[in-house]
Amino acid sequence: SEWLVHSLGSIISQPHDESAIPTVSLDELKAEMKELSPGELPEEFSRLLNKNQRALQQQQIWSSDHQMLVKFNYKNSEIPDWDTYHIHPIVLNTTFLLLSASAQRGRRYPFLYRAKSLDRFEFYRKPQKEFYAHIEFSDDSSNSAVLTSTISLLDPDGRTLLRAQNLRLQAVPLSEAIANLLYQVEWHKESISLSSLYDYPTNWLIIGENNGRAALLSGRLEQKKLNVIHLLEGSKSQLNDNGRGTLAFNSDDASSFLDQVLDKEFALVFFADTENGQAVERLNRLIGVLQNVSHKPNHFWLITERAVQLPGDSLPAKPCSAAAWDQGLQIRLSNPEMRFSMIDLDEDVLPVFNYLFLPVNEQIVAVRGEHLYVPRLRRAQLAHQTASLIDPLQALSERRKSPQADEIEIEVQAVGINPIDYQRNTPVLSNGFGYECAGKVVSVGENVTDFKPGDQVLALAKGAFQKYVTTPAQLVIRKPKKLTPEQGAAVPLGYLTAHYALSYLARLSKDETVLILNADTPEGLAAVAVAKGLGARIFATTHRWINAPLLSRMGAENVFKGDTLDFIDQTNQRTDGLGVDVIVNTGKNGHVSASFSVLKEFGRFIELNSFDLFEQPIVYHNLRRNISFFAIDMVQMLEDQQALVQRLFREVGEAVDSGKYELVPVEIAQVNQIPLLLRQLEKHLKINKPVVLLKSK
Fold it and tell me: Superkingdom of the source (predicted)?
């Protein structure tokens, strides 16, 4: 597997200087906050205390909008391994739980967080069992998907024990968090030569029913001049001169018997009985016997028959074998010191001898015919439930909100659907569905002078999928007269993002080259339209090759398949090895890191896929050669940069009205088609811009 850079920094060790330890006044801190009695604790804290009574044996909690102080006292707690750690895990875990609980206050939906970055970590001394935790939040943490805080542990005199400065936690969509907890086992065929054998042990103990398979293995091992003892279960432990015998699992002398017949290290093969249902009991008894022998097996093989169901198996798994297999997995977990391997065989398998000595480190395998299969954990693909459960007719509300001084109320006629709309569990979407619309102004706030009731407009608005929506006037422009409402609803978010990326950030100029990854999406087509309007030469990759002709008609002079890395060589060939000036990535793409190789010196890389930004590795050495990297979160800009959005939005409207930016193809849909549209966008099956009409019943 490939190692990826996770973080960069330096460790500095300094001489101990008691006077240099930062100290705060606990009394002053307490005065800045309100002490909370048990009845005053917010619901999030009460729930946390109830679930973590052992961890949270605090005496007092002080809290304000931007900080929190908690006193801990573990003096009367039995924590046996407290002295083993510099900072006990229970302290770190509890601090993070408090941090998360405090961040939930006032939130309608609970968030989960993952660590994003840390500016500095200082450690001064080990906490004793009585200490304080002080958490300070940045001013804008409550309005951002990134929670920024500084955490300090203080002794009773206010001296700092440790401090984590500017710890940033990224809010994780609930659906993504759940998906990261779910894994499934997939069996993969392993390519390996069966003739490649390594040096195997000299002494062997074979235990199993007299079903022919164990006897066959014993004979093959003896042909190799190896020492073999083959035992069946019996009422008495005994061994004949030919190396065959019985083992009484339940007798007290089973361990001493094995010590007598096995005076050296040995390998053990246990054949699980697949017929009478006693394999689990016998396996457990054998493990108990081995606990008391002097010479432990240096390798234990559990052999089952059709215990697992592999793709392509024509027969079902055997229940008794499956039970023994499951017990073997438990034994592996409970006996980590034992080299315990498991092999599942088919009925028509070649002699098991061929598979015991393969030069691989796999300890769980399945054999089918002449092929070897190994299990691999893969993250389970959890489908977005919200898209399939949306009742769009029920979601369409007639609720109205009177505009504030700088706001406009719009009667919505058409709504554009975007990939962001199926990310329903993210904090930015907690206020409704839809982010762009076309409609008619019905009322304006007292400070609004540029618009009046009756004006046809395009707007960016949270929760645009309503019959009436209210939004800041800075996020509204007049609809170009030549556009229909459905055409207009296809413009705001996609074109604003592409215009900001290519014109404002990348400063793309005429005759420069741009490579648009995943261009056969509505967002990709908008980027193609903007790049063409700026006079650039356009290269594009596609999810589906059937979309290549449309990309060519819209201005992409070179279109490549995006499912392999061939587009890198093809781009270099078409640019005479120079590469491109700008790369734009519009969606989740496993080739992002590799695509840096076609970026020129002083090139610009634009990432539009904000939701999967932290899932895609951008190796730091890719940013050499004076390359610039920009990651765009347009939804966050709508919150924090409305003046800039207003200027860009007006520029987009003028470019569309003049024909400089060509319109993307629009697909008009009805309200009841929204769940299908969301699934198609999520699976990259939609290239036309979907727009839902609301103006007709």
Answer: Bacteria
Task: Report whether CATH 3.40.50.11460 matches the domain 190-379.
Answer: yes
Residue with tokens 């009756």: 454
Q: For residue range 400-427, what is the model confidence (pLDDT) as tens digits?
A: 888 999 999 999 999 998 887 766 434 3
Q: Where in the chain is the domain with CATH 3.90.180.10?
A: 385-491+663-693
Angstrom CA distances, 640 to 235, 272, 278, 458, 500, stand at 80, 65, 67, 20, 15
Q: Which helix (H) or strand (E) holds 167?
A: strand 160-172
In the chain, list all ranges with CATH 3.40.50.11460.
Answer: 190-379
The number of residues in the chain equals 697
CB 498 within 8 A of CB 527: yes
CA atoms of 616 and 591, how far apart (whole Å): 9
**Region of residue 626 (phi > 0: left; psi between -120 and 50: alpha; otherwise: beta):** left
Residue burial 19-29, b: 16+ Cβ < 10 Å; e: rest: eeeeeeebeeb
Question: Which tokens sit at 271?
Answer: 């054949």
CATH 3.40.50.720 range(s) for the chain read 494-642+647-653
Please work out, in degrees rounded to the nearest 5, the angle formed at the alpha carbon of residue 474 by the alpha carbons of 670 and 476: 30
Q: What is the DSSP letter of 241?
A: T
222's tokens: 């003896």
CATH 3.30.70.360, domain 385-491+663-693, yes or no:
no
Please identify every stretch of the chain with a pLDDT value under 70, giving residue numbers as ranges. Answer: 1-9, 38-59, 78, 80, 101-112, 139-145, 173-182, 191-200, 209-211, 276, 348-354, 357-361, 379-398, 422-432, 588-591, 610-624, 695-697
* Three-state SS annotation for 587-620: CCCCCHHHHHHHEEEEEEEEECCCCCHHHCCCCH
Q: CB–CB of 697/402 below 8 Å? A: no
Q: b/e string for 51-82 if b means 16 or more Cβ within 10 A?
A: ebeebbbbeebbbeebbbbbbbebeeeeeeeb
140: amino acid identity, one letter: D
- The predicted-structure confidence for 261-304, as pLDDT tens digits, reads as follows 887 778 899 988 777 678 888 888 888 888 888 888 888 999 99
Structural contact between residues 583 and 603, judged by C-beta atoms closer than 8 angstroms: yes
Sheet with 160-172, strands from edge to edge, namely: 34-36, 58-63, 67-73, 130-137, 146-154, 160-172, 112-123
Whole-number Å distance between alpha carbons of 410 and 464: 9
Provide DSSP, 462-496: TT--SSEEEEEGGGEEEPPTTS-HHHHTTSHHHHH
Supply the Cα-derived Rg of the chain in whole angstroms: 33
Q: Among all chains, which residue has been given the structure tokens 């300890």?
A: 363
Looking at 3.90.420.10, 3.40.630.30, 1.20.210.10, 3.10.129.120, the CATH number of the domain 21-172 comes to 3.10.129.120
| Cα 207 to Cα 244: distance, rounded to the nearest angstrom | 10
Residue 194: strand, helix, or coil? coil
Strand-pair category, 130-137 with 67-73 = antiparallel
**Which DSSP symbol is given to 10?**
-
Other C-beta atoms closer than 10 Å to the C-beta of 112 total: 16
Tell me which H or E stretch contains 152.
Answer: strand 146-154
Query: In the chain, where does the domain assigned CATH 3.10.129.120 lie?
Result: 21-172
CATH topology classification for 494-642+647-653: Rossmann fold (3.40.50)
Going by C-alpha positions, the residue among 602, 595, 469, 582 that lies closest to residue 527 is: 582
Tokens of 360: 């691989």
